[in-house]
Amino acid sequence: MNWLIKSAFLVCPGHEYHRKEIDVLISNGKIKELGDNISTPSEIKVIDAKDSLLFPGLVDLRADLCDPGLEHKETLTSGREAAVAGGFTHVMVIPNTKPPVQTKNDVKYILGGNSSSLVQLYPMTSISRDLEGEELTEMLDLYTAGAKVFGDGDKPIWNTDILVKSLQYLQKVDALLVNKPCDQWLSKFGQMHEGVNSTRLGMKGIPVLAETLMIRRDIELLKYAGGKLHFSTISSKESVKLIKEAKKEGLNITCDVAIHNLLYTDEKNMMFDSNFKVDPPLRTEEDRKALIKGVKEGVIDCIVTDHHPHDPESKDLEYDLADFGITGLQTAISEAWSLKADIGEDKIIDAMSLNPRILMGLEDIKIQKGEVADLTLFDPEKVWEYSDRTNKSNSHNHPRFGENIKGKVRAVILGNNIFQDQD
Amino acid sequence: MNRLSVKHLLGIKDLTREDIELLFQTASSFKEVINRPIKKVPSLRDITIANVFFENSTRTRLSFELAEKRLSADVINFSSSNSSVKKGETLVDTVQNILAMKVDMIVMRHGSPGAPHFLARSLANTKTGKHAVVVNAGDGTHEHPTQALLDTFSIHEKLGTLEGKKVAIIGDILHSRVALSNIFALQKLGAEVMVCGPNTLLPKYISDLGVKVELDVDKALQWCDVANVLRIQLERQQIKYFPSLREYSLYFGIDRKRLARLDKEIILMHPGPINRGVELSTDAADADNAIILDQVENGVAVRMAVLYLLASKKPD
Lengths: 423, 316
What we know:
A: alpha/beta, B: 4-stranded parallel sheet, about 40% helix, Aspartate carbamoyltransferase (chain B), EC 2.1.3.2 (chain B), Asp/Orn_carbamoylTrfase (chain B)
């Protein structure tokens, strides 16, 4: 199938056509031609992309697709549908499934559907058996089976020895280790950010200290062990500061932030709405601003969806009994785009496409002649209703479900596969 | 003004000072009523109230039930102390089932902070529940609004006003819904508030609520006009916060000797049930300046006022 994307505005920092109008001719999954004004050959489908933005295909470094084990919340199939509707071509799924992703078979289960799908899934593969932080998994063998990124997903690596050993062991294959920084004792029973609002609500808080303590610890361990470490879902001003300093020292450190921590603060918890119950928690306006600045300055490398689908039975509950998380795959780019004045359009694309691509060990994206087409077409002005009718995920635990959202993905192309929004 | 600004009583946080003053006025009238030979009024005839208690309670439940009966409401009781009632669906389902039997008001105690807010929000979207009124009888470590109302009412009764009065809340502030609701109510009424207890039982950010913090119980007692002594809630502590009850009572327990050292007489309060010999010694609890049983009596009048005013506020 041949496609011509006509008159799109390219946002791809570093590209010769960056922030210029461009036509892209795609033939048999590859970019055949690109330029100012490509004449329309016959027998071709034209996508009129006037007023739409063309991005390199979006990449998410952190999504929970709950499959295997919790398929009532999400499956690889429904997760893929939500991802593509949200503009993603590549998604890394965390290993907190039942069972966790820790064997060659598990890795193959995640990778298996890729050849027949548009959205490419990659496993974050657990470094400790059953995510318990006690015994190492067979990381080299898992790497050979296709795992490129390692970590225990939602479970912070609490065991210092396991973290050191993983950092050392993975150096042989230069694989990325991911940790979610949170001290499990200081955060125990915590429901929201610890501060004046948690005090007002009588709710056990999760202190910033729980996060920064582990970041400090891990920085020391990284200095000792070497290797490379990625902090996933940081949430505080102090964390941004620590990581900025560590990067300045030349340590091989990267990090990401969840989209909701850029959008909301703990004021949202005041009505006990469990849709705002996330881990790490929504923190203060000062933290939110520091996170935004962190993305803008490149201290924070990626924005992740931190997609956590939940069924009503585990989410539509008394606040303290509800599970943590928001679904994010389908809405993340629209919500990120709402922050473009603060973060900058280029930085959003860095953080949601180019940087995560590198961290996942994928080939650098090239929107060039002869390269595989990996593109997302986004209409920043289109308002759409996020509802049962449009929702692709199996779940809808999202603070804006039922509302109108501005900015919609129009098309996603990866190789021979194309998704076009039918709305 | 003879209407409350709220449809439900979910917490003191949502009330205005005028709401509290109206509740006090109404409670005063009801206190007079319950001291008459015939203690019952027909105000809530044909109103059905369900007391739904997901947590153990003796005095709050009795007090509500009595208040309801004094107002001639029809009363049903549901209690499930089974803390394994974990699914919110069960909560909403349970209440919906009760409401389907044409119940008008739900008085609920629940172990989760915000459970009444969750319930009120869920009911607003249902056919059976949208007119129901929810009264919070204690939600986890969040609020216990009627307790705070009866506490402040009792101080008001004793001292004539709360404006400028100094109230020390002593004990386990971290796990106490009584403390939080009292802080909100006292501040709305113009009183100064201090909290006192072992530092591990004081929320780290409590001073951000505009209260004084004191670790020395003698200093707190010397400072205050009223000491509201809280029960040490061992059952709500998931983690150890102090080494032993013995040490607690030695350093934070209030007895007659401690009170005698003060150069003034202070009012002593306790929301009950007292751990005698732990936070309060028997000689202190039974002393003349202790108004613990007045609190209990006022509890009925205040709850009558709450139910009466909420029932007469017609749903929109």
